[in-house]
């Protein structure tokens, strides 16, 4: 073995050692129950509830009783097909509700309910408990869209965040179920509250809260003009846009229907 080869072999075994040490550290750092569960049967979205205590457990109980998360996931499983299971984990977390592309898992961070309730109450919402639960239904749909983009390699123009909002609107308006429409109305009103509370910031890839509020309000009105009074607080929705909302919604529906035809065809 030449000296250079010895050096290379030493480097390889050193890096192999580092990988091994890294794997051991990762195993040790993994909290019990944090490793990826294996789900049987046809691939689908699966709701799981992390074992929590105190206020977080109370929030989980309220969500479970309400059924919004389970209902949203059942609707998703009726409409979309998946190549692999996607866990929808209801849990406490520090990093914010998101789709974890590495583990292919949606984390719904229950901690966010309390702050959302306070903001909505402050803004004059007469029943912030109910509004927060409704918003979870929209959140599940939005995060599911990120999962679909990754698992189906969905091509799209514009930002993935806008696409995720349009998917949520499509899912929540397709059957005309009142709790679905309520969820989208609640999300529009929450974005409107956030638009007033926080600086408009698009650095996280999302449109501004004002734009998201206006989009949701417009698409709801496209299907349900009778909800106009509830959506009146959303002043980012320009009056001149409203007559075109039904057409906007139709375009959005056509886009999603054709994406799903492509998926069915293996595209
Ligand atoms: Zn998103």
Automatic annotation (TrEMBL):
Q: Which InterPro entries match?
A: DUF4344
Q: What is this protein called?
A: DUF4344 domain-containing metallopeptidase
User: Which organism was this protein described from?
Assistant: Aeromicrobium halocynthiae
Query: What is this organism's lineage?
Result: Bacteria, Bacillati, Actinomycetota, Actinomycetes, Propionibacteriales
């Amino acid at each position: 073995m030449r000296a250079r080869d010895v050096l290379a072999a030493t480097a390889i075994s050193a890096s192999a050692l580092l990988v091994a040490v890294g794997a051991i550290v990762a195993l040790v750092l993994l909290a019990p129950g944090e490793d990826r569960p294996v789900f049987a049967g046809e691939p689908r979205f699966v709701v799981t509830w992390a074992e929590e205590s105190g206020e977080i457990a109370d929030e989980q109980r309220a969500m479970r009783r309400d059924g919004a998360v389970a209902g949203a996931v059942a609707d998703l499983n009726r409409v979309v097909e998946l190549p692999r299971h996607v866990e929808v984990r209801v849990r406490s977390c520090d990093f914010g509700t998101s789709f974890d592309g590495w583990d292919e898992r949606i984390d719904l961070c229950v901690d966010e309910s309390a702050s959302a309730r306070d903001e909505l109450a402050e803004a004059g919402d007469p029943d912030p408990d109910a509004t927060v639960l409704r918003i979870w239904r929209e959140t599940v749909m939005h995060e599911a869209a990120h999962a679909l983009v990754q698992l189906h390699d969905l091509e799209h123009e514009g930002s993935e965040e806008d696409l995720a909002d349009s998917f949520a609107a499509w899912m929540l308006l397709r059957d005309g179920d009142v709790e679905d429409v309520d969820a989208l109305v609640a999300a529009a009103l929450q974005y409107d509250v956030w638009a007033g509370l926080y600086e408009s910031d698009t650095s996280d890839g999302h449109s501004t809260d004002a734009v998201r509020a206006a989009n949701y309000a417009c698409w709801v009105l496209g299907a349900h003009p009778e909800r106009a009074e509830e959506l009146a607080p959303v002043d980012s929705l320009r009056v001149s846009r409203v007559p075109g909302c039904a057409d906007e919604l139709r375009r959005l529906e056509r886009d999603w229907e054709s994406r799903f035809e492509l998926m069915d065809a293996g595209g």
